[in-house]
From TrEMBL:
Classification via InterPro entries: DUF212
Organism phylogeny: Bacteria, Pseudomonadati, Pseudomonadota, Betaproteobacteria, Burkholderiales
Keyword annotations: Membrane, Transmembrane, Transmembrane helix
Pfam families: DUF212
The keyword Zinc-finger appears for this protein: no
Name of the protein in question: Divergent PAP2 family protein
TM stretches of this protein: 6-23, 114-132
């Protein structure tokens, strides 16, 4: 097994977290520790699956069956991030309104917008390309 296929999504995940934190902090003009987690720009989920698909395309070619599987997985993850998880956030908002201020507040920001998913796609592609360029001899 070539460990680059495991290392690339892990490094992407580790890189996108701080990027998202810094962008959220700049947007809100404060340290955004309370915004760490699901949602935000760029989409961590989209970046991870895109980095994997991009690495497979660069190393094996787009005709390789693994690329088709990776792209399929990427679409499933991105559709889920955009639609299902946004509905979960709306449900959390409704539950928070019903329960009042005494109960533990559920996180309402869950899903991603298309812009956040697009940012994740571009970030994942860039990180995969950088890793492939650096370690292509291995």
């Amino acid at each position: 097994m070539e460990f680059i296929y495991l290392i690339t999504p892990v490094l992407t995940w580790l890189a996108v977290g701080p990027i998202k934190f810094l962008i959220n902090s700049a947007r809100h003009r404060r340290w955004a520790f309370d915004l760490i987690g699901n949602g935000g720009f760029p989409s961590n989920h989209s970046a991870v699956v895109t980095s994997t698909a991009t690495l497979i395309a660069l190393r094996e070619g787009m005709a390789h069956p693994a690329f088709g599987v990776a792209v399929t997985l990427a679409f499933v993850v991105m559709i889920d991030a955009n639609s299902l998880r946004q509905h979960v956030g709306r449900h959390a908002a409704a539950i928070n309104a019903l329960r009042g201020s005494e109960a533990k507040v559920l996180r309402e920001r869950m899903g991603h917008t298309l812009v956040e998913i697009g940012g994740g796609i571009l970030t994942g592609m860039a990180i995969a390309y950088a890793i492939h360029s650096r370690f292509s001899a291995f």
